[in-house]
Amino acid sequence: MLKVGVLGAGHLGKIHLRLLNQSEKYELVGFYDENQEYAEKIAAEFGYKRFDTIAKLIHAVDVVDIVTPTLSHYKCAKVAIKSGKHVFIEKPISTTVEEAEEIIALAKEYNIKGQVGHVERFNPAFKAVKDKIENPMFIETHRLAEFNPRGTDVPVVLDLMIHDIDAILSVVQSKVKSVNASGVAVISDSPDISNARLEFENGCVANITSSRISMKNMRKSRFFQKDAYISVDYLDKVCEVVKMKDAPEVPGDFDMILQNAEGIKKQIYYDNPSVEQNNAILDELETFADAIYNNTTPVVTLEQATEALRVAYQIIDCMEKN
Fold this sequence. Notes:
The chain is α/β, with parallel strands linked by helices. It is 34% helix and 28% strand. The chain folds into two domains: 2-112, 3-Layer(aba) Sandwich (Rossmann fold); 121-280 and 310-321, 2-Layer Sandwich (Dihydrodipicolinate Reductase, domain 2). It comes from Flavobacterium enshiense DK69.
């Protein structure tokens, strides 16, 4: 088993602690949180070992799970990597693209593995259809959340939209050609609602909307490609695949048939895959353990997370200009 320690015991850090403690692939050694009084409370309540310095925790483990505020990701990752420890970093990978690129360079220099917590890649609904998404040409996503003061220290693009940016980049095998975006700061000092339009070199267009001031929660994506429409509901963990094929010469009574202006007939049918329910956070942590054990590439690499961050900042820059 890999010895793991968690940096940061806030809302998400506590979830990571609980899941790592349950995992059969890790041995949870303990955690560090800079708020000493809070850390003592967590240690007393749950029985996890509390370390009083980051250095002591890093020295005691094989893997460092960084679940601190984004501003400290780079600093924590740098210390862990230079100590020869593998790093799991919660999204976004860092505050700036320059920091992320240095994390990549350090990981290569010290020959360690790193993975970033873009958890929607492990959402069972997305996993069920990912292999069916082939050369999508139009993508539309809505990620709407009720207001929560947690996370408002960063723009909604880095807080919420980056999930969809990463998922889109994982299925569109082309580079971003242009970005157009707008956003409004309603409650926070940074935008709380944003819309971005990404155009890719292969002609694909992605329209992405994120809000943290909505009346209800929604996390949906729709992918349109030749002869197929695919929808993913990340929140309810369900998906739908609607496909078209050449219509039979003699359609059945209940076959859905479309005919275009040229007289070509197509049959519409459902090809919905089964969704295997899982704990996405546990999955992402355990696949990282597998990558370390088997010396394989992590599911969400440092490079992929950096590209998602790069696109996020292109969106933010565009919003500021507009």
